[in-house]
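Hi C.,

You asked whether I'd gotten around to modeling the 350-residue construct. I have! Everything is below, sequence then structure, no commentary in between.
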Amino acid sequence: MESQTAPFIGACLSQPVSRTPVWFMRQAGRSLPEYRALRGSGSILEAIGDPDLATEITLQPVRRYGVDAAVLFSDIVVPVSAIGFGVDVVPGRGPVVAKPFRSAEDLKRFRPMDPDVDIPYVSSTVAQVAAELKGSETALIGFAGAPFTVASYLVEGGPSKNFALVKSLMHTDPELFAKLCDQLADLSISFLQAQVAAGAQAIQLFDSWAGVLSVAEYQRFALPSSRKVLAAVASMGVPSILFGVGCSELLATMATSGAQVIGVDWRIPLSEARERVGPGIAVQGNLDPVLCLGDLEVPLAATDAILEDAGNLPGHIFNLGHGVLPETNPDVLTEVVKRVHERGRAGVTA
């Protein structure tokens, strides 16, 4: 089956599908023993830079779980790392910036990214995965970080609990923050366009930390740059997903971003999320990843409840409300996929 009629792509476009599609954020990674055996203890950025290795890691969960989409093995800081901003991914902590963004002088540390020169390994990985999936019903998702979330890492210097530095910059120098987000939007656009050109059939924009913002802050400081990114990708003819954690109060505003799908975490019922995003926009989610750590009947019961809440309206992609936790038993996720395919009714044709 061609990718355009694959269940995942159809659901992104709120079209009738042969089955409710399912994939998992962070499905390629530490929960898989085959991943740990392959990766060893090297840097994740080094692994991303090896197309053969990154291709195999991207495909592992497709084989293991039977999901309806592969998601590129990469990281949201790849573009800023590639242009030499000084970002590394520290195991157990996440992105860390050697010299955080502090003033207008730091804008000089940005430059346009040339995908052919700066990230040829990303395009190679996408092309290899796309070739492996050709002729199947499994779609390939590319992704990037939304400007606000990447900015939060650059300003804070790493992961943060209260986002005090980035919020202070937003409010004390909104013009500088807007310039920072505009630079990051351009990087995300280049990153995503390279992935789509190489064969990605949909993209997800991760605004993971947008949930720390009020509705007014999101509208002012995050939404404009995300709209810029999503508009650029839309011109390439692929559907897009916008996702953030703790964004229940932002869903209606996120639905104005231009994304065809809005990701939903576990804090709000899926039916209520649908009401907030409005008609014509698909939803993705929203099983709490923690529920996959216990006995199998717990996540299966929660999966049944989500599928029941989703009903038979088109435009539902089953996923977790955030990424797969490292302690997750892969066999649990395999059973969740089977349950979704057996019982999902959203947009499913007779």
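If it helps when you're writing up: The chain is about 45% helix and 10% strand.

Thanks,
B.
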